[in-house]
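Dear support,

I submitted the protein below through the web form. The confirmation email said the job was done, but the results page showed an empty box. After a refresh the structure appeared. I'm attaching both so you can tell me whether what I see now is the final result or a partial one.
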Amino acid sequence: MQNVKKLKAERIELYKRELIHYYIILMAIILFVFAMIFTFIIPDKVMSWYLYGGLFLMVYTYVIIRKNYSVDILVHTYMILASFYNFYIMLAFWNNSVASFVWLMPIPLAAYVFFSRKWAFFYIIFVMLNIFSGYIISKNFNFNFPEHSHEDVRMTDIFLVISNVAVLSLLLYFNDKIRRVEIQGEIEAKLQVESKPAAFLTEKDTFSEELFGKVENIMKEKQLYKDVSFNISKLSAEMDINSGYISKSIRYKGYPNFSNYLNLYRINCVKKLLDENDLERVTLMYIYTEAGFSNQSTFNRVFKQIEGTTPSEYISKMQQ
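What the results page shows now:
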């Protein structure tokens, strides 16, 4: 039972971190496009720099904390700060278009995805108070914000709606994945109570297969194994996934550890380079360093361990 709960929690944590990662990328694109609009199409120096500043702070902060952070604390902090950040934009456009508060609409859904219905209800109240405060302040204070033409407002409103549809779609997509894991976890727990552990193994297999597939794709596409200093920590940073999950998926596929998995890629690369190159024109040192080995002794040892023969013996047989 505890294993099922632990596995479910790990998968949900993984999906939530992936959601945060893709959300940051999407919001960075959206803020950048809006900043460019107010720089070149609808000149508004204050608004453009406000958007550039928000973009920089969001991306810079995430880059610093993305390896170690609490999902709950980060999401709560972001939703509150994002609401206050949007408050200026909402006031600036209140007399031109009330659509600016649409930025706040995904917040309750995000609270439901990451937390619970209770928190979703709390953030609904929070968003309503935010909008009501904007209404009261706009009616009682005059900030002399720039006026914009109907064409300008129409353009920004259209992009605003498209942006929020994209954000909502991302939230709904990951919400579906998270809810499926929760439902499967409940089913697995019931089955385990009924002494049917095979169901748990099936769920574990699915998780490991999915993650290992991602590892395989990135190893093949980017050929990260060619980096002499490459290790599981660098792969974890590249994928933005906890190294423990990666290690478990690799062991599940039958590899003793990540080092063995990495060395297999490097040896296969060596064999491929030996087939493609004339050793009279290139040195063996070029071959094994190109494949990611730092020195010949390590290369010889790993090659013998995996292939059951020395590199020189392998080359002799290949030439014959």
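Response: this is the final, complete result; the empty box was a page-load delay. The chain has two domains: 2-182, 197-320.
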